[in-house]
Structure formats: C-alpha cells, structure tokens
C-alpha cells in the first residue's frame, strides 16, 4: 500500500471524559503509548459541551510543550478550520465546513459517533452534540432520568461505549474510509468498569464525591474526603483509564490495517479538592490540563 496523505486517512478520535493528566501519566497504557508519547495539553473547555464544540471545530487540546511530531512532521495542530483566524501555526490537515464531521462526510467517509455521558444522549432535545453526526450511538444512562444515588453510583459494563468495539469496528470496516469518534465515559465519575466494579467502600466514597460535585466546595462540608479517600478515587480513575486502554487495543487491532490517524485526549480534567472544589466546569489547572496522544496505526 503506498503512503497515504494524512488528509486522506481514516480517523479514530477518542475523548477520555474527565481524565486528568496526572492520572494518565501514572497509568499503564501500552496501547496508547503505541501511538506516541503522552503529551501534556491544555483544553479549551472546562466541561463536556464547550470542549467538544471546540474539538469538533478542530480546536483540540494544545500541547504545552509546543509543536509535536506527526507522521514525521513537526506541527502545532492536527486540524485547522478555514474559519480560524490567520496564523503561522503549522497544521497537518486544513478543512472547510462547520465541523470535522461535515468535512469528512463531504469527502465520502463513513462518519460515526458513539458516546457515554449524557451530553451525547440524542433522546434529550436539549442536546446538540449527537446531531452533528449522521449516525450516533449512545450507551450511557438516559439524560432525563431522575438523578439519584442509585442511578449514578452504578456498575456500567454495557453502558460504556468501549464495551462495543467489535460493533464499532465492523461498522467502520464496511466503508472504504471512516471517521470514528468515541466519547469514553469510563474515566468519568463513577469510574466503574468491568475491571473495577463497585465495592462497599468505593460506593460510599462515590456518594460523598457526588455530593461534593453537586456542592462544588468542601469549605463547610460535614463529610470531607481525606487524602486517603482521594487517593482511592484517583486510583479508580486510573483503573478506568487502563480498562479503556485495553479496549482501545482491541479497537486498534481491528482497524489498524486501515492505517488510520488516531487522536486520543481528555475533554477536560477534574479537581479533587486541590483548591477546595471538586469536579469540573470551573477554571482550574487540574481541569484544563489533559492528556493527549496522537499517531498513525499500521505504519506510514
Ligand atoms: Zn466531559
């Protein structure tokens, strides 16, 4: 197979929802490391909606170390919209149109999305993101379902999009070229995966963490989390990332012969009380600092 221009490759774009950079740096992720070095990047959004709106317009989290190597070339960005302001920054792929998805649809790609957090539930008329795709699969809990401890602190398994890598890969393989987006929810609270099911201890910790997310501050809480509690919760997110890495290994092996461009990043991180708040949606270094990997599968 001759070299394929980067702009004509199939694409796998993954967001690891809420995954902190320091968690990614401490995790065992052999499949992600195959793509290239872990890059420390800054997200343009502090929660799912703005981060993905920017991402779908080509504004991925930007590596803090500056230009990075992609397909042997030093670039500042992977995609660049024709609508972006003039810049000397080097981008690998220029595109026209309102989103990456419209660009790839117009090029004749099979464009498919999959999501796991409630912003991607198309059955909720308030949600805009899934409508940006011609086909979108949602696996998470219903966005409009009553929110209680019982509906939030749960084992998820089949509700995780990366539990469905076989079906996603088969759908992509049916087309000559594809653009596959997956919002991975395993790294989002409650961090449960088939590798890390609920126990009595982490169930209690998650209930308390949800209360802190809802209150946004630990300042006057009666039930603060100890440093040991937070270590356990961060370990849960790390284990959720390692499960995602395993599932991505399966996805990559199914699609590597198509030699896709692969980009994996978090949409935002989250704060675990470093400066008194928990969760995301507010400006803080741990919220804006995210992991990023990018590379090519199946050789150049
Ligand atoms: Zn998110």
Highlighted features:
alpha/beta; 9 helices; binds zinc ion
Sheet with the most strands?
A: 8 strands, mixed
- The poorly predicted ranges are none
Bound small-molecule species: zinc ion
Distance between the termini: 10 Å
Q: Roughly what is the average pLDDT, rounded to an integer?
A: 93
Give, in order, the helices and strands.
EHHEHEEEEEHEEHHEHHEEEHE
Question: Helical proportion?
Answer: 25-40%
Q: So what's the CATH class?
A: Alpha Beta
Gist of the model:
The chain has 300 residues and is of the alpha/beta class. The protein contains nine helices and 14 strands. β12 and β13 form a beta hairpin.
Overview of the molecule:
- This protein is an alpha/beta fold.
- It is built from nine helices and 14 strands.
- Strand 4 (68-70) and strand 5 form a beta hairpin.
- Helix 6 (165-173) packs parallel to helix 8 (227-255).
- The longest helix has 29 residues, at 227-255.
- The protein is globular and about 55 Å long.
- The termini are close together.
- The mean pLDDT is 93.
- Bound molecules: zinc ion.
- The site of zinc ion has 7 residues, from loops.
SSE arrangement:
Blueprint: E1 11-16, H1 21-26, H2 30-33, E2 39-42, H3 48-56, E3 62-63, E4 68-70, E5 73-75, E6 77-81, E7 91-95, H4 100-106, E8 110-115, E9 135-138, H5 149-152, H6 165-173, E10 178-184, H7 200-215, H8 227-255, E11 261-265, E12 271-272, E13 278-279, H9 285-288, E14 289-296
Helix pairs in contact: 6-8
Bound molecules: zinc ion.
């Amino acid at each position: 197979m001759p070299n394929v221009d980067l702009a004509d490759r199939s694409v796998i774009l993954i967001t690891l929802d809420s995954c902190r950079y320091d968690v990614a740096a401490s995790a065992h992720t052999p499949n992600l490391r195959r793509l290239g070095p872990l890059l420390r990047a800054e997200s343009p959004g502090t929660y799912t909606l703005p981060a993905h709106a920017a991402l779908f317009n080509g504004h991925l989290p930007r590596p803090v170390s500056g230009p990075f190597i992609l397909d042997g070339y030093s670039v500042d960005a992977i995609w660049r919209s024709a609508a972006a302001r003039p810049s000397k920054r080097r981008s690998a792929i220029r595109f026209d149109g309102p989103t990456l998805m419209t660009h790839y649809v117009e090029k004749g790609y099979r464009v498919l999305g999959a999501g796991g957090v409630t912003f991607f539930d198309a059955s909720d008329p308030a949600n805009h993101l899934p409508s940006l795709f011609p086909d979108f699969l949602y696996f998470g809990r219903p966005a409009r379902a009553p929110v209680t401890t019982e509906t939030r602190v749960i084992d998820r398994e089949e509700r995780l999009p990366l539990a469905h890598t076989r079906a996603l890969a088969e759908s992509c393989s049916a087309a000559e070229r594809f653009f596959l987006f997956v919002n991975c929810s395993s790294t989002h609270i409650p961090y449960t995966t088939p590798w890390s099911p609920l126990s009595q201890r982490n169930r209690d910790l998650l209930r308390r963490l949800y209360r802190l997310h809802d209150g946004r501050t630990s300042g006057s809480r009666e039930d603060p989390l100890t440093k040991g509690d937070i270590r356990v919760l961060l370990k849960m997110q790390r284990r959720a990332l390692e499960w995602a890495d395993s599932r991505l290994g399966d996805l990559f092996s199914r699609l590597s012969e198509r030699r896709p461009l692969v980009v994996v990043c978090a949409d935002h991180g989250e704060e675990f009380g470093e400066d008194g708040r928990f969760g995301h949606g507010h400006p803080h270094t741990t919220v804006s600092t995210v992991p990023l990997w990018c590379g090519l599968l199946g050789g150049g």
